[in-house]
Amino acid sequence: MTNVDFHFDLMCPWAYQTSKWIRQARAQRDISVTWRFFSLEEGNWQEGEKHPWERPWSYGWSLLRLAAWLRREPDGNEAVDRFYEVAGRMFHEEGVKVHTPEGAYAVLRELGRDPGVVDEAIGDETTNAEVRTDHQRAVARGVYGVPTLVIDDADVLFGPVITPAPTGAAAGRLWDAVMAWREFPHLYEMQRPKVEADQTHISASFEPYGIARGWSTGS
Protein backbone atom coordinates (compact mmCIF):
# COMPACT_ATOMS: atom_id res chain seq x y z
CA MET A 1 0.00 0.00 0.00
CA THR A 2 1.30 3.43 -0.98
CA ASN A 3 0.03 6.28 1.19
CA VAL A 4 -0.56 9.66 -0.43
CA ASP A 5 -1.35 12.96 1.26
CA PHE A 6 -3.08 14.96 -1.47
CA HIS A 7 -2.89 18.71 -0.78
CA PHE A 8 -5.65 20.68 -2.47
CA ASP A 9 -7.41 24.01 -2.64
CA LEU A 10 -10.84 23.61 -4.17
CA MET A 11 -10.40 26.80 -6.18
CA CYS A 12 -7.56 25.36 -8.28
CA PRO A 13 -8.69 23.82 -11.60
CA TRP A 14 -5.40 21.95 -11.98
CA ALA A 15 -5.71 20.33 -8.55
CA TYR A 16 -9.25 19.29 -9.41
CA GLN A 17 -8.11 17.46 -12.54
CA THR A 18 -5.35 15.75 -10.55
CA SER A 19 -7.88 14.71 -7.89
CA LYS A 20 -9.99 13.09 -10.60
CA TRP A 21 -6.92 11.24 -11.82
CA ILE A 22 -5.83 9.95 -8.40
CA ARG A 23 -9.31 8.56 -7.71
CA GLN A 24 -8.99 6.62 -10.95
CA ALA A 25 -5.41 5.61 -10.13
CA ARG A 26 -6.31 4.19 -6.72
CA ALA A 27 -8.81 1.92 -8.47
CA GLN A 28 -5.93 0.62 -10.61
CA ARG A 29 -3.13 0.49 -8.02
CA ASP A 30 -2.75 -0.11 -4.27
CA ILE A 31 -3.04 3.52 -3.11
CA SER A 32 -4.53 5.13 -0.01
CA VAL A 33 -5.36 8.84 -0.37
CA THR A 34 -5.64 11.23 2.57
CA TRP A 35 -6.99 14.68 1.68
CA ARG A 36 -4.99 17.60 3.10
CA PHE A 37 -5.51 21.36 2.87
CA PHE A 38 -3.34 24.05 1.30
CA SER A 39 -4.64 27.59 0.91
CA LEU A 40 -3.69 29.44 -2.25
CA GLU A 41 -5.09 32.62 -0.69
CA GLU A 42 -2.72 32.34 2.25
CA GLY A 43 0.10 31.15 0.01
CA ASN A 44 -0.28 34.31 -2.09
CA TRP A 45 -0.78 36.61 0.93
CA GLN A 46 1.17 39.88 0.88
CA GLU A 47 2.01 42.35 3.62
CA GLY A 48 -0.85 44.78 4.23
CA GLU A 49 -3.57 42.36 3.12
CA LYS A 50 -5.98 40.57 5.41
CA HIS A 51 -5.31 36.89 5.98
CA PRO A 52 -8.17 34.73 4.70
CA TRP A 53 -9.20 33.81 8.25
CA GLU A 54 -9.67 37.53 9.02
CA ARG A 55 -12.51 37.79 6.51
CA PRO A 56 -16.12 36.71 7.17
CA TRP A 57 -16.01 34.62 3.97
CA SER A 58 -12.94 33.94 1.90
CA TYR A 59 -13.55 31.81 -1.21
CA GLY A 60 -11.28 28.75 -1.10
CA TRP A 61 -10.36 29.20 2.57
CA SER A 62 -14.00 29.01 3.66
CA LEU A 63 -14.55 25.90 1.55
CA LEU A 64 -11.56 24.32 3.29
CA ARG A 65 -13.10 25.26 6.64
CA LEU A 66 -16.24 23.40 5.57
CA ALA A 67 -14.09 20.42 4.58
CA ALA A 68 -12.36 20.61 7.98
CA TRP A 69 -15.75 20.41 9.70
CA LEU A 70 -16.72 17.37 7.63
CA ARG A 71 -13.36 15.73 8.38
CA ARG A 72 -14.35 15.49 12.05
CA GLU A 73 -17.01 12.91 11.25
CA PRO A 74 -16.30 9.19 11.88
CA ASP A 75 -15.68 8.66 8.15
CA GLY A 76 -14.04 12.08 7.89
CA ASN A 77 -11.56 11.45 5.08
CA GLU A 78 -14.28 9.87 2.95
CA ALA A 79 -16.57 12.81 3.73
CA VAL A 80 -13.89 15.23 2.48
CA ASP A 81 -13.35 13.05 -0.59
CA ARG A 82 -17.03 13.17 -1.47
CA PHE A 83 -17.30 16.89 -0.70
CA TYR A 84 -14.32 17.69 -2.94
CA GLU A 85 -15.60 15.42 -5.68
CA VAL A 86 -19.06 17.01 -5.74
CA ALA A 87 -18.02 20.62 -5.13
CA GLY A 88 -15.23 20.27 -7.68
CA ARG A 89 -17.58 18.89 -10.32
CA MET A 90 -20.10 21.66 -9.72
CA PHE A 91 -17.45 24.38 -9.84
CA HIS A 92 -14.99 23.19 -12.47
CA GLU A 93 -17.36 21.31 -14.80
CA GLU A 94 -20.74 22.97 -14.31
CA GLY A 95 -19.71 26.56 -13.56
CA VAL A 96 -21.59 26.76 -10.24
CA LYS A 97 -20.24 29.48 -7.92
CA VAL A 98 -19.55 27.13 -5.02
CA HIS A 99 -17.08 29.64 -3.56
CA THR A 100 -19.99 31.75 -2.29
CA PRO A 101 -22.11 30.88 0.77
CA GLU A 102 -25.12 30.22 -1.50
CA GLY A 103 -22.99 27.94 -3.67
CA ALA A 104 -21.72 26.06 -0.63
CA TYR A 105 -25.32 25.52 0.49
CA ALA A 106 -26.00 24.03 -2.96
CA VAL A 107 -23.07 21.63 -2.55
CA LEU A 108 -24.45 20.40 0.77
CA ARG A 109 -27.88 19.89 -0.77
CA GLU A 110 -26.26 17.94 -3.64
CA LEU A 111 -24.62 15.75 -0.99
CA GLY A 112 -27.97 15.18 0.69
CA ARG A 113 -26.80 17.11 3.74
CA ASP A 114 -28.31 19.95 5.76
CA PRO A 115 -27.06 23.24 4.23
CA GLY A 116 -26.90 24.59 7.76
CA VAL A 117 -23.62 22.68 8.11
CA VAL A 118 -22.02 25.56 6.19
CA ASP A 119 -23.03 28.06 8.85
CA GLU A 120 -21.92 25.72 11.62
CA ALA A 121 -18.49 25.30 10.06
CA ILE A 122 -17.97 29.02 9.47
CA GLY A 123 -19.34 29.89 12.90
CA ASP A 124 -16.76 27.67 14.61
CA GLU A 125 -13.39 29.43 14.87
CA THR A 126 -11.61 26.10 15.40
CA THR A 127 -12.08 25.31 11.70
CA ASN A 128 -9.81 28.29 10.96
CA ALA A 129 -7.17 26.76 13.22
CA GLU A 130 -7.53 23.37 11.58
CA VAL A 131 -7.01 24.71 8.07
CA ARG A 132 -4.05 26.82 9.25
CA THR A 133 -2.47 23.75 10.85
CA ASP A 134 -2.71 21.74 7.60
CA HIS A 135 -1.43 24.68 5.57
CA GLN A 136 1.52 25.40 7.85
CA ARG A 137 2.46 21.73 8.03
CA ALA A 138 2.45 21.62 4.24
CA VAL A 139 4.61 24.74 3.94
CA ALA A 140 7.08 23.23 6.40
CA ARG A 141 7.36 20.23 4.06
CA GLY A 142 8.17 22.51 1.12
CA VAL A 143 4.70 22.61 -0.42
CA TYR A 144 4.22 25.86 -2.37
CA GLY A 145 1.11 25.15 -4.44
CA VAL A 146 -1.41 22.56 -5.51
CA PRO A 147 -1.75 19.85 -6.56
CA THR A 148 1.01 18.44 -4.33
CA LEU A 149 1.42 14.80 -3.33
CA VAL A 150 3.33 13.67 -0.25
CA ILE A 151 4.04 9.99 -0.86
CA ASP A 152 4.67 7.66 2.09
CA ASP A 153 5.49 10.72 4.24
CA ALA A 154 8.75 11.00 2.29
CA ASP A 155 8.59 12.33 -1.26
CA VAL A 156 6.95 15.70 -1.94
CA LEU A 157 5.95 16.08 -5.59
CA PHE A 158 4.13 18.98 -7.23
CA GLY A 159 1.70 17.64 -9.82
CA PRO A 160 1.04 15.86 -12.04
CA VAL A 161 -0.40 18.90 -13.80
CA ILE A 162 -2.66 17.55 -16.53
CA THR A 163 -6.03 18.14 -18.19
CA PRO A 164 -8.17 16.24 -18.77
CA ALA A 165 -7.56 13.67 -16.05
CA PRO A 166 -6.58 10.24 -17.39
CA THR A 167 -9.04 7.46 -16.65
CA GLY A 168 -8.92 3.68 -16.43
CA ALA A 169 -5.68 1.98 -17.39
CA ALA A 170 -4.15 5.30 -18.46
CA ALA A 171 -4.57 6.60 -14.90
CA GLY A 172 -2.61 3.61 -13.66
CA ARG A 173 0.17 4.23 -16.16
CA LEU A 174 0.49 7.86 -15.06
CA TRP A 175 0.73 6.66 -11.46
CA ASP A 176 3.56 4.34 -12.53
CA ALA A 177 5.33 7.35 -14.04
CA VAL A 178 4.97 9.24 -10.76
CA MET A 179 6.40 6.30 -8.88
CA ALA A 180 9.31 6.15 -11.33
CA TRP A 181 10.05 9.82 -10.54
CA ARG A 182 10.61 8.76 -6.90
CA GLU A 183 13.64 6.74 -7.96
CA PHE A 184 15.50 9.98 -8.71
CA PRO A 185 15.45 12.20 -5.60
CA HIS A 186 17.41 14.96 -7.34
CA LEU A 187 15.22 15.11 -10.43
CA TYR A 188 13.53 18.42 -9.70
CA GLU A 189 11.72 19.44 -12.84
CA MET A 190 10.47 18.31 -16.22
CA GLN A 191 8.18 20.61 -18.16
CA ARG A 192 6.44 20.57 -21.51
CA PRO A 193 6.37 24.05 -23.10
CA LYS A 194 2.84 25.29 -23.82
CA VAL A 195 2.34 26.32 -27.43
CA GLU A 196 -0.75 28.07 -28.78
CA ALA A 197 -2.62 24.79 -29.28
CA ASP A 198 -2.00 23.92 -25.63
CA GLN A 199 -3.35 27.28 -24.48
CA THR A 200 -6.48 26.70 -26.56
CA HIS A 201 -6.88 23.23 -25.05
CA ILE A 202 -6.46 24.56 -21.50
CA SER A 203 -8.93 27.39 -22.07
CA ALA A 204 -11.55 24.96 -23.37
CA SER A 205 -10.97 22.56 -20.49
CA PHE A 206 -11.29 25.28 -17.85
CA GLU A 207 -14.17 27.21 -19.44
CA PRO A 208 -16.74 26.32 -16.70
CA TYR A 209 -14.25 27.43 -14.04
CA GLY A 210 -13.77 30.72 -15.86
CA ILE A 211 -17.55 31.21 -16.00
CA ALA A 212 -17.85 30.56 -12.26
CA ARG A 213 -15.05 33.01 -11.47
CA GLY A 214 -16.07 35.56 -14.10
CA TRP A 215 -12.63 35.21 -15.68
CA SER A 216 -11.27 34.40 -19.10
CA THR A 217 -9.47 31.06 -18.93
CA GLY A 218 -5.88 30.20 -19.71
CA SER A 219 -2.78 28.79 -18.06
Quick summary:
The chain is an alpha+beta fold and 219 residues long.
* Rg on CA atoms, Å: 17 Å
According to DSSP, the number of beta strands is 4
End-to-end C-alpha gap: 34 Å
- Sheet/helix structural class: alpha+beta
The helix/strand order is EHEHHHHHHEEHHH
Percent in strands: 5-15%
CATH domain fold name = Glutaredoxin
Report on this model:
By secondary structure, the protein is an alpha+beta fold. The protein has a single domain, classed as Glutaredoxin. It is 52% helix and 10% strand. The chain contains ten helices and four strands. Strands 2-1-3-4 form a four-stranded mixed beta sheet. α1 links the parallel β1 and β2. α1 packs across α4, α3 runs antiparallel to α4 and α4 crosses α5.
What topology emerges from the helices and strands here?
Blueprint lengths: L1 E7 L4 H16 L2 E7 L2 H4 L15 H13 L4 H17 L8 H10 L5 H8 L2 H15 L7 E4 L3 E4 L9 H14 L14 H10 L1 H7 L6
Parallel strand pairs: 1-2
Antiparallel strand pairs: 1-3, 3-4
Helix pairs in contact: 1-4, 1-8, 3-4, 3-6, 3-7, 4-5
